[in-house]
Amino acid sequence: MKNYQGMMTIVSKRELVKDVFEMVLEGKAARFIQAPGQFINIKINDSLQPYLRRPMSICDYDDNHITMIFKVVGEGTKILSQKNIGDQLDCLTGLGNGFQDFQAKKAIVIGGGLGVPPMYKLAKTLKEQGVEVQAVLGFNSKDDVFYQEEFMDICPTFLATMDGSAGVQGTVLDAIQAHQLVFDKYYACGPEKMLDACVMAYPENGYLSFEARMGCGFGACMGCSCKVKTKPYKRICVEGPVLMSSEVIIGG
Amino acid sequence: MANLRVQLPGLDMKNPVIPASGTFGFGYEFAKFYDINCLGSMMLKGTTLEPRYGNPLPRIAEGPSGMLNAIGLQNPGVDAVMSEELEKLRPLYTDKVIANIGGSAIDDYVETARRISAHDMVGALELNISCPNVHAGGIQFGTNPEMAGEVTRAVKAVSQKPVYVKLSPNVTDIVAMAKAVEEAGADGITMINTLIGMRFDIKTGKPIIANKTGGYSGPAIFPVALRMVYQVSQAVSIPVIGMGGIASGKDAIEMMIAGASAVAVGCQNLIDPYACPKIIEEMNEILDDMGINDIHEIIGLSHQW
User: Fold this and answer.
1) Which of A218, A225, A227 sits opposite B273 (nearest CB)?
2) Which of these, A64, A99, A219, B56, could form a disulfide with B210 (CB 3.0-4.6 Å)?
3) Does A225 touch chain B (CB under 8 A)?
4) Partner residue facing A213 (CB), from B25, B29, B58
5) Is the dihedral of CA B94, B96, B97, B99 positive or negative?
6) A223 in contact with B at a CB cutoff of 8 Å?
7) Is the CB of B24 inside 8 Å of chain A's CB atoms?
8) 3-state SS string over A145-158?
9) How confident is the model at residue B133, as a pLDDT?
C-alpha cells in the first residue's frame, strides 16, 4: 500500500523576486514523487485556518527534497511565505500524473509566470534522457523574471515579456516565432490563456499542465474536473494536471 | 476497548464511522492511503440515472473553517457506477456500502433506486433530496415536506434495501421534514447536508463559484448539525446518521451524544485523507478514558437535558 503523506521540514527559503519565494523542503515524503509535473498539497497550518490544503507545483526533487516556488497571492501563500527554516509542513506528495513521455528528438519546454517552476525538473529530465531541450520562459516584465540562469545552465533559454523589458516583447508564442525555434514535442505550464494559445498554435505533440481550484488533490471531491476529448471528463488532480494537446477542449 | 459495533437497517457496522457522500468518491481512491476495511460503511458519490458532468469550474471556494462546493452531482450514471465503479471497489471493501442517489424528477429517483438497490454490495440507499447544487429537483424535494414524503414513498416501493433520507438544513423546520419522511416509510435519516452559501471576488463583485451559490461544510457548521440532530433524533423513532463538520473522534462522540446512531465524516476526508481511521482510533481512546464499554451508552445522552 502506498503512502503519500509525510511531514517535511523547511530547510531553505529565499525571495527570488517580489512576492515569489523558493522553498526547499526535506523529508522522506519526497520519495513518493515519480515524475516531473506531479504536485504536492500542503496543509499550511495545524489550525482550521486556512481550511483547505494548498496545491503547489514541484520545481525540483530528489529522494529526500522538494523545491517549490510560489507567489504570495492570498491568505494561504502569505502564511506559507512567513514560515521559517526548521518549520514542518504536513504534505501529500507525488500527486497527479506528471510528465511521463520523454520520447522526443528536440523538445521545447514553455513556462509562463508561476508555470515556470515545474519546467525546471522536466528540462533536466529530458536532457538526461538524451533529448535536445530548449526553454521559453514568459513573464509580465523583467522585474518578474526568475530562474533564467538556472535554466541557462541546462539548455538554451529564451525570454518573453509582455512589456518587452526583457527578451522578446509579447507572449511565449511570439518568442518561439521570433527565434524560429524548431521542435517535435512541446511541454507547457502557465496561465490558462497561455495554454489555450499553445493548443491553438500547436494542436499536436504537446503536453500541457493545468491548474485548478482543488478541494482535496487526490480525486475524491470532483472539484477540478474538466471536459476533454478523450473521456467525458478528467480530474486535474488525478488524470491531470498534464493533458495531451490533442485532448484539450478550449475553455473545457 | 469499547464495543463500537452498531446495527442499523441494512447495515451491520464494526464501528459507527462512515465517510460521507461526495467526499470519498467511490471509495477506491482512499485505498491508496489505508485499508478501507476499517470503515463501518461508506456513502458513495451521488449517483443519477444518466451520467452528469456537473457544474462549470470553479466549483470550490474556502471560508472560515470550511469550504463551499458546487460540484453538481458529477457521476458516470447508475449503470456505470454498478458495472465499473463498484467493481473497482469490490476487491478493496468487504462490508456493505450505502448508495447515494440523486435526481431531478421522481421517476429518476425511482429508476436509479430500483437498479442500484439490487446490487449485492449495497446495504442501503441514501436518498439525496437536499443537494443545493442542481437546478432542477434535488433540493426542492428537500425543502417541502409533501414532496419529500412523495419521493420517499415512491423509492420505498421499489427499493430492495432500506432507504435513508438525507435532509437539508436549508429549511425553517427540519423536524417537520424528518417526520414527513418517517411517515412516508423512510428506514432512517442522514443529516445534515450542506448550508447554502456564497463567496465573492471583492475586485469584480463576481461570485467565486461558477454556479454562484454552493454548499458550505466543514467544522464551521458543526454546532448547527448538532442542534438539528438533537431536535430530529428526539422527534422520530427511526435512526439518525449524524454529519456536518465532524473532524475528530471527540466531534464524533459529541454527535452521537446529540442523538446520532452513527456518524458520517465529510469535508475532513479532503483535508486529511486519513481522517476516518484517525477518528475511529480517537473514539476508542476517548471511550476508554470515559470508562464506557459500549458505544450505545452515549447515543442520545444529551436528551435528558
Assistant:
1) A218
2) B56
3) yes
4) B58
5) positive
6) yes
7) yes
8) CCCHHHHHCCCCEE
9) 64
Quick check: A231 contacting B, CB < 8 Å?
A: no
Q: Where do the domains of chain A lie, and which CATH numbers do they carry?
A: 5-95 (2.40.30.10), 106-247 (3.40.50.80)
The widest CA-to-CA distance across chain B, in whole angstroms, is 56
Domains, chain B, with CATH or none:
6-304 (3.20.20.70)
The answer to whether A224 contacts chain B (CB < 8 Å) is yes
Query: Mean of the pLDDT values across residues B179-199?
Result: 97
**Core vs surface per residue A102-133: b (16+ CB within 10 A) or e:** bebeebbbbbbbbbbbbbbbbbbbbeeeebbb
pLDDT score, position A48: 87
- Predicted local confidence at residue B137, as pLDDT: 57
- Residue written as cell 441514501? B126
Candidate from A52, A215, A225 with C-beta closest to B74: A225
- How close is the nearest chain A Cα to the Cα of B63, in Å? 7
Looking at residue B247, its pLDDT comes to: 97
Interface test with B, best of A52, A224, A235, A239 (most B CBs within 10 A): A52
Catalytic residues of B: 131
Q: What is the pLDDT of residues B201-245, one digit of tens each?
A: 999 999 999 999 999 999 999 999 999 999 999 999 999 999 999
Shortest Cα–Cα distance, B61 to chain A (Å): 8
Please indicate if any CB of chain A lies within 8 Å of the CB of B65. yes
Whole-complex ipTM:
0.90
Coil, strand or helix: which one is B223? helix
Cis omega before residue B292 (within 30°)?
A: no
Model confidence over A33-88: pLDDT tens digits?
A: 999 999 999 999 988 889 999 999 999 999 999 999 999 999 999 999 999 999 99
Q: A221 vs B69: CB contact, 8 Å cut-off?
A: yes
The predicted pLDDT at position A232 comes to 84
**Chain A hits for B218, Cβ within 8 Å:** 48, 51
Whole-angstrom distance, CA of residue A2 vs CA of residue A94: 11
- Evaluate the CA torsion angle A156, A161, A166, A169 in order and state its sign: positive
- Residue A139: is its pLDDT beyond 90? yes
> Using one digit for the tens of pLDDT, what is the confidence trace for B38-91?
999 999 999 999 999 999 999 999 999 999 999 999 999 999 999 999 999 999
Q: Are A159 and A148 in contact (CB under 8 A)?
A: yes
